[in-house]
Design goal:
The protein has 168 residues and is an alpha+beta fold. Helices cover 46% and strands 20% of the residues. The strands form 2 sheets. The protein has a 3-stranded antiparallel sheet, covered by helices on one side. Strands 2-3-6 form a 3-stranded antiparallel sheet, with no helix packed on it. A hairpin with a 3-residue loop joins strand 2 and strand 3. The protein is rod-shaped, with a radius of gyration of 33 Å.
Length: 168
């Protein structure tokens, strides 16, 4: 008589496949692989924005320094430009900078008196690569090329050190 082989139920190939598919081993790794690029993109975006904001603050402070020099007696427009350039260079920003010193402006306040201010505008053309490789890929596909070049500008005005006088 022929012997029948007894195969346990747990060892059948279909049962093993179902057990492996039902297992949750490695699920965290797969989820991490999906989330990690997005997390990395957000972190790099935060770092890039921090660098951009730091450079904007430097440009703003350079305009403030230029306005301070422009209202002091005995300083010329060349002195203002030199001070702004010196401030930007000391802060590590090099590149094309435009410094505009406007004519003195009288601002009236109560009682017919005026104070004089001289606005100083600093425009700094900054090559900022916001998430450089990603924007580079976007520009190859036809979009996002305008995100790489930004002009940071700041304007500052300060009151003249001379006493307020009658309005002209």
């Amino acid at each position: 008589m022929a012997q029948l082989a007894v195969v346990p139920l747990a060892a059948t190939p279909g049962r093993i496949r179902r057990t492996l598919w039902a297992s949750e081993r490695g699920a965290e790794l797969v989820e991490f692989a999906f989330v990690f690029p997005t997390l990395l993109l957000v972190m790099l975006g935060i770092i890039d924005f921090g660098f951009l904001f730091q450079r904007y603050e430097v440009v703003t402070n350079a305009a403030r320094e230029g306005a301070r020099v422009s209202i002091l007696p005995g300083y010329t427009d060349a002195d203002v430009s030199a001070r702004v350039t010196q401030y930007l260079t000391a802060s590590g920003l090099t590149g094309s900078t435009t410094v505009t010193v406007d004519a003195p402006q009288a601002i009236a306040f109560g009682g017919g008196h005026c104070v004089t201010v001289r606005p100083v505008t600093v425009r700094y053309a900054h090559e900022f690569l916001f998430l450089g490789p990603i924007v580079g890929l976007m520009s190859l596909t036809g979009g996002g090329g305008s995100l790489t070049n930004r002009t940071l500008s700041a304007t500052s005005s300060m009151r003249s050190e001379v006493a307020a006088g009658p309005c002209p």
